[in-house]
Amino acid sequence: MFTSQSSFQDSVDGDEKDTELETEGCLTDPVTTPQQSSNWYYCLYFYQSSRLQGADDSEAGSHRKPASTPGDEFSLSLGDTNLPAEAESELLSYISRRLSKGALLGGMGNIATVSLSVPEQSLGCYCCLVQQDRLQDQAGAAGGISTDFVICFLGGSEKGLEHFRLELDTYVQGLQSSLSPQLSDLETHIRPYLSSWYEECVMHIQRVVQLTQDKVSFLLHAALSHSPVEVIGEDKVKKDIDRFLNAASFQGLIHEDTTAATLCNALSEEPQKDVTIDCSQQQPQFLNAGSNRFCESWVQAFLNGSDGGNPFLLRQILENFKLKAIQDLNSLKRLIQQAEMNHYALFRCYVFLKHCGNGDVLLQNVKVEHAEMPEAHRIVQVLEEFMSEEGSTSLQ
Q: What is the spatial distance between Cα 91 and Cα 86, in angstroms, rounded to a whole number?
């Protein structure tokens, strides 16, 4: 009989062992513990190819002379950093080697482990080549020189930073329009922005869990069910919750033609109230929020992870949560496919939905995915009728 193990420990011990997430290894990664990595570094470099070497060097201002070697097709010069001088020189050599091998692509972050002369010794390092050509074509036509940049964020472990790749890519893009050869906004905007990468890109999950506590199940359910969420409160809180919802959603995990946009469009055809979160008071208040047994069973894992003070562990728990949800969704889709030719498989679908604890979310998603498949859509309608007759559509 088909069963659904929806606890955090089951997720670690179950099907996840065969996935690329390598759950157990990530949960015990010593580099990600806060005791071993309490500092978070950044580094900003000017990047020029050899065809620009004859240009006026004054655009680098008072920054250090570009570091290059004979035969190189590029040069790097330091723009700003909070790394110690020796560690920065080591990072510069590392970035130069990566560039010479073509390992850094414009707009795509690269994550690896680097060994530097810092207390942590080994750190996860996110590097991104920020190309300004598209933004400065007009300036170049007027006689200006386009200068690209390399941005590096260092902290935690390589495996830990991998979970935040999308957040880091987005964060770097947010600075792109502010970068210029003169770094005129260095003190007022660029340096504070770079210095805040860890708080903005990594800590948001922990802040949301600490804010919502056991009500985090409402956010998990809203993320999986694509429910619109309105947040009343400070902009920082709104951004944190929005990032949490994006990280917890199915988006990017469903390997079908159906996209999140398609889901939202289809769901909009049915009446759906916004989930409202009032964060103007000390304790957030939820209105029109829903939950189910699956989401509630993960609450304690999130609370334990938050108490441990390790944001990388919290992100791993969130990835395990999504992985279990997508596994259950795939199991239901296989059962529906079997039910098209086997009435007993239809009963197994019903039993699976009844016991998995996440039936409302799973039915909602397969209903949209199978909307244009007449036989499968009919089966989904029958399942909805079964669940409605028992008065347990929400499966709480």
A: 9
Question: In sequence order, what are the residues at sequence separation of 6 or more whose Cβ sits closer than 8 angstroms to the Cβ of residue 158?
Answer: 31, 111, 112, 113, 124, 125
Close Cβ partners of 307 (under 8 Å, ≥ 6 residues apart): none
30: pLDDT strictly greater than 90: no
Summarised one tens digit per residue, pLDDT across range 192-227 is 999 999 999 999 999 999 999 999 999 999 999 999
Mean pLDDT along residues 224-252: 91
Q: What is the mean pLDDT of residues 11-20?
A: 39
Give me the torsion for CA of 33, 37, 38, 42, rounded to 10°: -130
Rounded Cα distance, 161 and 363, in Å: 33
Do residues 112 and 101 lie in contact, with contact meaning Cβ atoms separated by under 8 Å?
Answer: no
- Token pair, residue 380, equals 């989904």
Tokens 């069973």 belong to residue: 297
How far is the C-alpha of 332 from the C-alpha of 3, rounded, in Å? 11
- Of 303, 311, 314, nearest in space to 210 by CA: 303
